[in-house]
Design brief:
heterotrimer, A alpha+beta, B mainly alpha, C alpha/beta, A: alpha+beta, Rossmann fold, OB fold (Dihydrolipoamide Acetyltransferase, E2P), 5-stranded antiparallel beta sheet, B: mainly alpha, MetI-like fold, two-stranded antiparallel ribbon, 31 helices
């Protein structure tokens, strides 16, 4: 616990209610200095509320929030050393780009010359040198987004908050900008909290991911942890794609369990110690389809096939239920109606509750 | 935070130690007490309490050292904040209580106690020192509350809430309570609730005899007139709004002018013009009578005349409300409807019109309220048709003054207005029309179906023509010797009112100059204050969450529903005596205008601020700006049109209002409308109309000037980032 | 930016004369014609050097204000308008004796001072009369009225306009006059019959006369001096002095109790009672009869000598009780009979 360090954020039993609705339930969370932590979850899970509580834009119904070791629970947003990048960017439409970026410095009474020099520097950092005199409305969506980031980082905040910063960009730009954001965060050594509902985005930028569900933390860890060691069917499904196949556990055996599905018994890793009923997590790329007669195994029928260039996606109706399968591009892909054999490596399959 | 407290502590100490506590001879802001500290009246409260033996004032001063001590004492911040707020609140309550207990002639209660405390001589009205001390305690209180951790910690926002609540309490609820008290008074001098109920529900007010040939009570007449005026102005306003937004009508500019001018017309003028057109000897009536070989009648005097005048006067208000609403209906909704194979009429009937309903309700409510409060038109054209507003006026100034009757009628009027207001709120509360977001929408508004277009033209254009005729009559009337009889051209009315003698330096010779200058000064002071108050309230309502917000909103809207006559009388009753003694000054006029016109600023501000994305404020706040800086740097620059509207409206209303003004003008501060009423009473129509024409011109110039000042800023709302 | 706005507001506020009347300034409420008010104020200023702050208000509004401000008046002197509200103010102790010399005044003015114990002194008088629109009656072939009783004749159906005595002092004077001429019961009977011909009971006392001038009504009842003003303005108005005799009003001047400028107020009272000051009224088209014996009259002024005046009993009919009784009887009997 090094929450005394500059930029570290700590939640102690934080609650937030709106009337009878609970937005955040008893949250304990530590965000370490210099890390980019993502709050991930479906809409309504409380991630944005959590972010806004760090900013001071939402009051806290109970518990404490510390930033850099200081209790900021009742400190208003103005006096917290955090900045935020908004989903809508919230660029001031009546100010030029440079005025927007220098705004935070100006209200802190930094001399105008110095403020503009700093702003200019940060604009260069985000690749917008020379755009200072424009109005936000004269920029493209991606450029506006970068101005929003520049405006937030110019203050060198203890914590940088990003609320779905990429949701208004198209897919290609999104990947590009998220790399830039990650780059800037690492270059400046900023602590950053990032909210998104897109798991791919979360995996791509984060040091750690906090997955939230129903106003609570469902699981937190590094992207690899979450993908490799999901603690629930929800996480397994939410982080990356997964086929969840219900099965009965007939015998547990230390790290392994013997399960039965579609009248066949298998030895599957059981890190959570599930008993009785469980779900097998089978990643789509771990399944191999073949001609039906080739190997003993499960079989099924292709109900849908989509050619995506680098890969082919199949939906297969099988003894294990409906399976989503991603296969490499082959010269002779299966088509709808083909009967196929289904193999997967039991080693890569996990059991979750 | 401690710094803020320190600053207010210093302000309070200045108020307590250096400037006179009481109102001095020269008035609230006069400086003539300097050097005259010999008389007790000119002394600051500290000296009054310590040297002049006015011991009962001591607690007011004592709060400061206690608060200062608490500031340096080593206790937890939360406890400190709590203790400071308790002390500040207690002193504020004490100031108010002692103000009512010790009046000019001495204490009214607890004689013995106050005698010992040196209050036997009574006291004068509160002055500049008291103002500073009270403000100091008020802001110490709000800052302390913001420090206590119960609120979200913004001293500015809580200070603003505290200030507005205090102002509304003093300048809305206190005077209204005086009226309520008056209504409970009996002839014998006591107070009686049953007596009040009996009079309130009597036929004197609510008679329904007109259903079978008699005359109805004024309350029934007011309701009847109000409903029809609300419906009429809403229909006309909607027709105009549709013509503006959904047709290619050629002379839109001219139409726009015609829909604006009635707002800036002083009262009585429209009534006079109607008499000259439709009166028994009016141009139109005689022409018609000759044509049809009928007797010319006096049909104008009564319901129809008042109704016509109100339609002319209030349609612009409905139009201004509805044009925003009609524009706000998202074009993509209409396009969606059309792609679903609905024709233009069906689209309007089933999509656009239902989406406009909240706006229509709003326009109707405004028309209804304006009609209830209207005083000038029923006075000139009412004949035997009595409405509440004029009945109240004559209950006060009639041959047998009956303030209790006036108070009871006022309560009836207040009840009607507030019920309409509440009914509208409840109706709107259940429906969601979230599509009207104000977001940029790139679609095209559907044009009107031919039949609907015709209907709009047929309602709106005759009305526009009518307005044009009425106004040309007014201009004409100001340039002829004797309107209606001797139509030889003359400048004499203008000269009589606005002559300037240059022979010996500049001498403002015309009879109107005095009231003209007073009106301009007071209006231009009142307008920005009104706009600030209105927009600040709107900001709190839209952007801040706090307990009791609904009550807060309701009370700020109340002044709008209270007719001017009632306000005028209640202000005289409330502010003619210590503790607050401001009758006969310009301050009372300014304050009255502020609270009467604030609701429109609030409404406009709410509408405009709801269209500004909230993340803009939040961005500013998280970038380290406080609420005040955010308002100044971000919200205000983006609110240009709303500010313009609030300023223009309050300026215009301050110039054209009459009913409240009549009671509050004084020898030194006479207003243009009250002057004009006097001229109308004396039958001097030429001068009245010439003066009105000059006022109209002045207001037009002022609005253009405002537009140039505010509109020139870079305000590209269409460029707003999404 | 913010600072400059704040400073601007401060400058504006500072520039406002926000205070109450200074001690060397006299606050006068004038219930006469605006221009007459204006003229006398500037003459008084020129003569005495005392600044006058003057506002014009009707007697009803003024009485309401004086009542509301009782104990702490903002008004020093109340000048002009019908005498009854002055008498009410006097009887309620709202005005105080001015101790002015009344020896040069006409009898009715002195009488007023006697009734009010010196608190209200008569400054001018005006007789009630009937006016008719000459053109309109001629066109309709209606014989003009010459007596009060004529007004009850059916030929004037819908042609008569009078004010409502509840709101208008003029109309109350008319009511009291008829009661004194005919006796109370007969007067109300007559009023009921006249009521059938009345097209509108206006709120303001001067409205019927203006309506007659413009041909909005055929016949009106009001004060003769108002009728002269309209006639001189060029309207086809004829003035009738009723054959049964008529009542009159006495305009008064009162000093408000508790004034802070008693000396200046007394000077004002002396000034408006002086012959030379009163003689100037016709300059501004004011045609009522001045109260000073020495004041000169405009030839147009309907001199009270040529009018058959009744011996109007101000003490009785100015009293609040009488008023209330007559008005409630009017409300009960006359108002319902109108159209």
């Amino acid at each position: 616990m090094n929450s005394q360090v500059h930029g570290a954020v700590r939640f102690d039993g934080v609650r937030k209610n709106y009337g009878s609705v609970t937005a955040v339930k008893n949250l304990d969370l530590t965000i370490e200095s210099g890390q980019l932590v993502t709050l991930l979850g479906p809409s309504g899970c409380g991630k944005t509320t959590t972010l806004r509580m760090i900013a001071g834009l939402e009051s806290v119904s109970g518990g404490q929030i510390h930033i850099g070791g200081k209790d900021v629970t009742h400190l208003s947003a103005t006096y917290r050393n955090v900045s935020m990048v908004f989903q809508s960017y919230a660029l001031f439409p009546h100010m030029t780009v440079i005025e927007n970026v220098a705004y935070g410095l100006k209200v802190k009474s930094v001399p105008k010359k110095e403020a503009h020099a700093k702003a200019e520097h940060v604009l260069t950092l985000v690749g917008l040198a020379g755009f200072g005199a424009r109005l936000p409305s004269e920029l493209s969506g991606g450029q506006q987004q970068r101005v929003a980031v520049a405006r937030a980082v110019v203050l060198e905040p203890e914590v940088l908050l990003l609320d779905e910063p990429l949701s208004n960009l198209d897919a290609k730009l999104r990947r590009h900008v998220r790399e830039e954001i990650r780059q800037i965060q690492q270059d400046l050594g900023l602590t950053a909290v990032y909210v998104t509902h897109d798991q791919e985005e979360a995996m791509a930028v984060s040091d750690r991911i906090v997955v939230m569900k129903n106003a609570e933390i469902a699981q937190e860890g590094s992207p690899v942890d979450l993908y490799e060691h999901p603690n629930s069917a929800f996480i397994a499904d939410f982080i990356g794609d997964a086929n969840l196949v219900q099965c009965g556990i007939t015998k547990t055996n230390g790290e392994f369990a013997e399960v039965e599905a579609a009248k066949r018994r298998m030895q599957i890793r059981n890190p959570l110690g599930c008993e009785a009923l469980a779900n097998m997590v089978i990643r789509p790329q771990d399944i191999v389809l073949s001609k039906p007669d080739r190997n003993p195994g499960f079989s099924g029928t292709v109900t849908y096939a989509a050619y995506l260039g680098s890969q082919i996606q199949y939906t297969v109706d099988s003894e294990l239920g409906e399976l989503f399968v991603v296969g490499g591009a082959t010269p002779q892909p299966f088509t709808k109606g083909d009967v196929v054999g289904i193999q997967f490596d039991f080693e890569k399959v996990r059991l979750v509750g | 935070m401690a710094r803020t407290l320190g600053i207010w502590l210093i302000v309070g100490l200045v108020g307590a130690c250096l400037v006179p506590w009481y109102l001095t001879n020269g008035g609230l802001l006069s400086l003539n007490w300097i050097g005259g500290s010999g008389t007790p009246e000119n002394n600051p409260i500290l000296l009054l309490a310590l040297i002049h033996g006015k011991l009962w004032l001591l607690p007011v001063v004592a709060g400061f050292p206690i608060i200062a001590t608490l500031l340096v004492l080593r206790i937890t911040p939360a406890k400190r904040a709590k203790l400071i707020s308790i002390i500040a609140l207690s002193v504020l309550v004490y100031v108010a209580v002692q103000g009512f207990l010790v009046v000019r002639n001495g204490p009214v209660l607890l004689n013995d106690v106050f005698h010992v405390l040196g209050a036997e001589d009574g006291q004068a009205g509160l002055g500049i020192g008291a103002l500073l001390v009270v403000l100091s305690y008020l802001f110490i209180l709000t800052t302390a509350i913001s420090m206590s951790g119960n609120a979200r910690g913004d001293a500015f926002v809580i200070g603003l809430i505290g200030l507005i609540i205090a102002l509304v309490a003093v300048f809305v609820f206190f005077p209204i309570s005086q009226i309520l008290l008056q209504s409970l008074k009996t002839d014998a001098g006591g107070y009686s609730v049953t007596g009040f109920l009996k009079r309130f529900f009597s036929g004197e007010v609510w008679r329904l005899d007109c259903l079978n040939g008699g005359t109805c009570g004024p309350a029934i007449n007011s309701i009847f007139l109000g409903v029809l005026t609300g419906a009429g102005t809403t229909t006309l306003g909607l027709s105009f709004a549709l013509i503006f937004t959904r047709t290619q009508f050629k002379a839109k500019k001219l139409l726009r002018v015609l829909t604006i001018i009635p707002i800036i017309t002083p009262p009585f003028v429209i009534g006079l013009a109607l008499i000259l057109l439709f009166g028994r000897s009016g141009t139109v009536t005689t022409f018609w009578a000759d044509l049809m070989d009928m007797q010319a009648t006096r049909w104008l005097y009564g319901f129809w005349g008042v109704y016509m005048a109100q339609l002319l006067s209030f349609t612009p208000i409905a139009f201004l409300v509805l044009i925003g609403v009609v524009e706000g209906v998202s074009p993509s909704m209409e396009e969606a409807s059309q792609t679903l194979n609905a024709n233009k009429w069906q689209t309007f009937r089933h999509v656009s019109f239902p989406l406009m309903r909240p706006g229509l309700a709003n326009a109707f409510l405004l028309g209804f309220l304006e009609s209830l409060a209207d005083f000038g038109n029923p006075l000139v054209l009412g004949g035997n048709f009595n409405v509440l507003s004029t009945e109240i006026f004559f209950a006060i100034i009639g041959t047998v003054a009956d303030p209790a009757k006036a108070a009871i009628m006022s309560i009836a009027l207040l009840t009607l207005a507030l019920s309409a207001f509440v009914a509208q709120r409840m109706w709107l509360g259940k429906k969601s029309y979230a599509t009207v977001t104000g977001k940029a929408d790139s679609g095209q508004h559907a044009s009107l179906s031919p039949k609907l277009k015709l209907a709009c033209y047929l309602t709106a254009l005759p009305w526009a023509l009518f307005t044009a005729i009425v106004y040309s009559m007014i201009v004409f009337g100001s340039f002829v010797t004797l309107w209606g009889y001797d139509h030889s051209f003359t400048f004499k009315h203008y000269l009589q009112a606005f002559a300037i003698d240059f022979s010996n330096g500049i001498r403002w010779k015309g009879v109107a100059w005095d009231s003209y200058f007073t009106t301009l000064t007071i209006s231009s002071v009142a307008a920005p204050l009104t706009a600030i108050l209105g927009l600040a309230t709107a900001y709190l309502l839209v952007r801040q969450k706090f307990a009791g917000k609904n009550v807060f909103e309701f009370s700020t809207m109340m002044c709008f529903a209270i007719p001017g006559t009632v306000i005028g009388v209640s202000y005289v009753m409330a502010f003619n005596f210590p503790p607050i003694e401001i009758t006969g000054t310009s301050i009372i006029l300014i304050v009255m205008f502020m609270f009467r016109n604030m609701p429109v600023g609030v409404r406009g501000g709410i509408a405009a601020m709801s269209q500004l994305d909230k993340s803009l404020d939040e961005a500013s706040i998280t970038l380290g700006a406080n609420s005040f800086t955010t308002i100044k740097r971000v919200i205000l620059p983006l609110l240009g049109p709303a500010i313009l509207a609030a300023l223009a409206y309050s300026f215009v209303r301050a110039i054209t209002s009459v009913s409240a003004v009549i009671f509050l003008v004084s020898a030194k501060h006479n207003m243009a409308t009250s002057f004009i009423v006097g001229r109308v009473e004396a039958g001097d129509y030429g001068l009245s109309i010439a003066y009105s024409a000059v006022l109209i011109l002045t207001m037009l110039l002022a609005i253009l000037l405002l537009q140039a000042l505010i509109g020139a800023r870079r305000l590209r709302r269409d460029n707003r980032v999404r | 930016m913010k600072m400059s706005i704040a400073r601007g507001v401060m400058v504006l506020l500072a520039g406002l004369p926000a205070g109450q009347a200074l001690s060397d300034e006299l606050s006068v409420v004038c219930s006469n014609d605006e221009r007459w008010c204006h003229l006398m104020a500037s003459e008084f200023e020129a003569e005495t050097g005392i600044d006058v702050a003057m506002v014009r208000k009707s007697t009803g509004e003024t009485l309401a204000q004086v009542r509301a401000e009782a104990g702490n008046p903002k008004i020093d002197v109340w000048w002009g308008g019908t005498g009854d509200p002055h008498l009410i103010a006097a009887s309620e102790g709202l005005s105080q004796p001015s101790e002015a010399d009344t020896s040069e005044l006409l009898g009715w003015a002195v009488n007023m001072a006697d009734i009010s114990e010196g608190r209200a002194i008569g400054v001018h008088a005006g007789a009630l009369g009937i006016s008719f629109n000459f053109d309109l009656l001629k066109e309709k072939g209606i014989e003009p009225p010459s007596c009060w009783r004529d007004l009850a004749d059916s030929r004037f159906l819908g042609e008569i306009q009078v004010a409502n005595p509840n709101s208008s002092g003029t109309a109350y004077t008319q009511l009291a006059t008829l009661v004194q001429v005919f006796g109370e019961d007969e007067a109300f009977e007559l009023l009921k019959q006249i009521g059938k011909n009345v097209n509108s009971y206006t709120k303001s006392g001067s409205a019927p006369n203006k309506a007659a001038a413009r041909g909005e009504t055929g016949v009106a009842v009001g004060f003769m001096h108002d009728m002269v003003t309209q006639k001189k303005a060029g309207f086809p108005l004829e003035i009738v002095s009723p054959c049964e005799g008529t009542g009159y009003e006495v305009g008064a001047v009162s000093i408000i109790t508790g004034t802070r400028n008693l000396d200046a107020a007394k000077k004002w009272v002396e000034f408006v009672l002086r012959a030379d000051a009163q003689s100037r009224a016709p300059e501004v088209e004011v045609y009522n009869v001045p109260s000073n014996k020495g004041a000169t009259l405009d030839p147009q002024t309907p001199s009270l000598g040529s009018v058959k005046l009744i011996d109007y009993d101000f003490a009785t009919y100015g009293a609040v009780d009488t008023r209330k009784r007559l008005l409630s009887r009017w409300d009960a009997e006359v108002k319902p009979s109108s159209n």
